[in-house]
Amino acid sequence: MFTWKESKREKVIKKRGIDFAEMTDVFDDPLAVYFEDYEHSTKTEIRFDVIGQTARYGLIFAVFIYADEI
Q1: Most buried of 24, 40, 69, 70 (most Cβ within 10 A)?
Q2: Rounded distance between C-alpha atoms, residue 29 and residue 9, angstroms
Q3: What dihedral angle (degrees, nearest 10) is formed by the CA atoms of 58, 13, 9, 69?
Q4: What is the pTM of this model?
């Protein structure tokens, strides 16, 4: 299951034209590349980056955390 802050979603749609709800298939891309984002992580939140393909937007870069870390 994917969740996000609605205010952040609306901001990204307005700024970049990308809707979080239409890019979750990046996690289904078998060739996607994942990185731990040490620079932007904190003691309470470990951030990850993914670069991969989506059906709607093609190649994207996304930042995420695992829900159990919220």
Answers
A1: 24
A2: 22
A3: 30
A4: 0.82
Cα–Cα distance measured from residue 64 to residue 24, given in angstroms and rounded to the nearest whole number: 11
Three-class SS of 5-64: CHHHHHHHHHHHCCCHHHCHHHHHCCCCEEEECCCCCCCCCCCEEEEEEECCCEEEEEEE
State how far the Cα of 58 lies from the Cα of 19, in Å rounded to an integer. 13
Helix (H, G, I), strand (E, B) or coil at 67: helix
Tokens 């979080």 -> residue: 20
Could you tell me the strand order of the sheet in which 33-36 lies? 33-36, 48-54, 58-64
CB atoms within 10 A of CB 64: 17
